[in-house]
Amino acid sequence: MIFATLTIIVYTISLLLIFMYALAQLNLLFNYLSSKKKIDTSETFDFSNPEEIPFVTIQLPVYNEMYVMERLLDNIVLLDYPKDKLEIQVLDDSTDETVKTTFEQIERLKQTGIDIKQITRTDRTGFKAGALKEGLKIAKGEFIAIFDSDFLPKKDWLKRTIPYFKNEKIGVVQTRWGHINRNYSILTKIQAFALDAHFTLEQVGRNSKGHFINFNGTAGVWRKSCIIDAGNWEGDTLTEDLDLSYRAQLKNWEFKYLEDVETPAELPVIISAARSQQFRWNKGGAENFRKMLFRLLTSKNISVKTKVHGILHLLNSTMFLNVLMVAVLSIPMLYIKNEYAHLKPYFYVMSFFVISTIIFFVCYWIMYKNIYGSGIKNFIKYITMFFTFFSIAMGFSLHNSIAVLEGHFGKKSEFIRTPKFNINSLKDSWKDNKYIKKGISLNVIFEGILMLYFAFGMYSAFIVGDQGGDFGLFPFHLMLFLGFGYVFIKSITSKA
Question: Which of 37, 251, 317, 407 is the most buried (most CB within 10 A)?
Answer without folding.
Answer: 407
